[in-house]
Amino acid sequence: MGQKHFTSFASIPHSLVFLKGIKHNYLKWNIICIIAISSIQAQNSAPSSHFSFRFDNNTRGEILINEVRIPSSGVAMYTYYESLGWSGNAGGYGGIQEHPYNNGKPYIFSIWDNPAQSDSIKEVDVGFGTETESFGGEGTGLKSMNFVLGWEPDVWYALVARCWPVGTHTYYAYFVRDGTSDIWRHLVTMDVSAENALMSPSSSFIEDWSSTGANARETNIRKAWKYAGGNWYPMESGYYSVNKNDIEPGGRSYNYRTNWDGGIKEDATGKYYYMISGGASTAPTCDNGTTFSIPRPGEIAPDYPSFNVATLHAKVSGTDLIVSWYRDSTTLPLLTYTFEVFNDSNCSGTALASVSKTEPKRGADTLDISSLTPDSKKYFLRMSVTDILVNEVIPKIIPFGYGVGITQNSASYSYNRLNIRLDNHGTLQFSVLKNSNYTLSLRTLNGSEIIRNKMRLSAGIQSIKLLERCSAGAYIVSISEESGITGRNIVFYNGK
Questions:
Q1: Global confidence as pTM
Q2: I need a labelling partner for 109 at 20 to 30 A (CA). Which of 189, 405, 445, 460 fits?
Q3: Are the CB atoms for 338 and 384 separated by under 8 Å?
């Protein structure tokens, strides 16, 4: 897993070929695969290098974090810069790639099938631009790739793998933070049919999956964390090594057997670990098998800004209270939320109505308020959140009442370059200020998607009549731009 290398056609598709949604390129990529097989046998691949995590505690955990940066000098085609690796009953890995499909820079996240699992791994939810597909070759399982968001050289990206129990299953989610914009994005959630399938962190690696050892590729990593048993553990050291099978006579990297290096560097962002593989001028400055350490005194937990709700709305619709919210995108996504209704502003005593869920991408929900008195009396809604890094956020409280809240069938948001409005006639109007690709989604509050359209739009106003497409009830409509800018969670009630 990550340490196996491509020696047959069956194993190549896991890193090279991802065809869902790009079927028109199927034949072309199969031809590339066949060419790649013959060139791999020429022993010209860059040596696969690993940096094994060392934590003070060996307990399996629920969260694994690592930050990765690819310097401009270290970008090379056909490279997997893996940053998150773990073993266990839901073993997997995640990272970024320099990929030949459209010169792409995708994010990848994969989990392997395991005998402890009672069923195949399933997709639960995906973020904008993410596609999932089963894989074979290096074992079997479910992989996700996102070619839409992309990454840039010389920028630090925080990658997070997060798991939690759901009945007798374990859910896994993948998140990324862009070091330029500081925006957090949820990429995918997967359902693993094994109970308490926690992570045993293993390593990061750098891999040339083709035969391009003449090109140096480099990865930088720092600030890795593990969360286990209610405690945070920083990675203060790691073990660097090069795959010996690669550099022995007949190995896939024999012609570049001395072209590798690893260790510690420092720049304006601080100290970090690095690995370099391939390149004619690359030479080792350490032994193959060296421990490196960056002490982290005083660090007790990750310091990313905790979840903050930017907007919270509540609206009475019959015997339901429809709640919608969206997050300050530079703060951590939520994992678990609870909404409670009280009859006083201090939110004391027993809640009159409540709902609680664990779902990182959720942006709207409904509470049954049939027990409340439909008069002019005000009520108070309290939102409590635990984010993906187990920060318990200070609750947010807003008042509401019958006839108080969002006007039925009318809502508007303005977020960065994207403006969205739903008028009283159920016509969705979006005013976009740039030419780009957009995705429209219409779904019920329980998550069932009714409409999902991808479209290319020019700057200007577009209109879509939504109420003609759905029966009576409450709905969520969202528009996403391919860069991740999103106007989300416009909740409306169709009373026809």
A1: 0.78
A2: 445
A3: yes
